[in-house]
Amino acid sequence: MQNKQRLELADYEAENLARLQKMFSRKWEFIFMQAEAQAKVDKKRDKLERKVLDSQERAFWDVHRPVPGCVNTTEVDIKKACRINRHSKMSRPNYAVPGGRISPSVSEADLHTPADSIRHEIDALRRKLEKRRVKISKVVECYIAYYQQYAEFDAFITSPDTSNPWISDSTEFWEQEKTMNPREIPQRRVKRWAFSIEELLSDPAGRDQFSKFLDKEFSGENLKFWLACQDLKSLAMREINKKVHEIFSEFLAPGAHNPVNVDCQIMELVRRRMEMRGDNAPTRFVFDEAQDHIFKLMKSDSYSRYLRSDQYKEFLCGTRKKVRHLPVIQSDWAASIFKH
């Protein structure tokens, strides 16, 4: 439509224009008038803005209406096309299997010369040992940090309030670890809840305190749902079907009494599984995705807020603190590693 040299149409564009003129012959005058009005509006724009819009338009048509002979990215995955053209392939180790061809991945050469393939595998493993991905000093540092963190909870290293259960017949130490009485819970047990949410949920007293905190935050249904899913995994087979429907109706069904906040995709996945019958009936793992989603929500939000809450701080200060540390001797080899 414009006679500028830089905007001349290519051959395939001219052919498409002629085809469109023939197709919309009755409306072509109206289309031409709209194009002229759009061109007048374009002239009033700033020069830099016109260049940007022109580049965007060209990029759009390059993607959706590519030049003949080019790859149409809307029909062919460009990443897949690149992988097809790539000649280098990842080699997989082949292992010789005695007694004829059993595995289709075993080559004929490996069947005739199994010793060579084994030597090749040994050399590859030795190269991996020589070039480690993690430094030994870093590994030792992590082990020592873990040891120092949990030293207070090991009766061999830290003398407990009661007699050492490893060298005596008294089980008072283990009973103390199971007690739910807030006055009897030692402080070191409460401090352990701050290590991770797994430590908190593994302690019955920790679960009870965390549940009270979530009830105050109006999100107690999250922990109830997670605990119900945990109990489901240890139930007998004859009780699974009934328990699955109870959990679904209480937490995930429309109009549930304690609805949990899960992603819409996960909700749809669980609903499809609940509708299956026969051999594909819901199993004990039907809520795995929803359980993981709720666990991540509690770990990233509720757990951190619980550790900062006054409830946890007051409970920590109110517990007993009677421990006597034994002298900890750091080995010379560990100290020498840290020097290097």
Automatic annotation (TrEMBL):
Coiled coil ranges? none
> Would the keyword Transport be found if you checked this record's keyword annotation?
no
Give the superkingdom in one word.
Answer: Eukaryota
Q: Which residues form the G protein gamma domain?
A: 102-177
Signal peptide start and end residues: none
Keywords in alphabetical order: Signal transduction inhibitor
- What Gene Ontology cellular component terms go with this record? cytoplasm; neuron projection
Q: Which Pfam families match?
A: G-gamma, RGS, RGS_DHEX
PROSITE patterns, alphabetically? G_PROTEIN_GAMMA, RGS
The alphabetized list of GO BP terms reads: G protein-coupled receptor signaling pathway; negative regulation of signal transduction; regulation of G protein-coupled receptor signaling pathway
Matches recorded under Gene3D superfamilies: 1.10.1240.60, Regulator of G-protein Signalling 4, domain 2, Transducin (heterotrimeric G protein), gamma chain
Q: What molecular function terms (GO) are annotated for this protein?
A: GTPase activator activity
Task: Specify the RGS domain's residue ranges.
Answer: 196-316
Q: PANTHER family annotated for this entry?
A: LP21163P (PTHR45746:SF6)
| Protein name, entry field | Regulator of G-protein signaling
Organism name: Plakobranchus ocellatus
State the taxonomy lineage.
Eukaryota, Metazoa, Spiralia, Lophotrochozoa, Mollusca
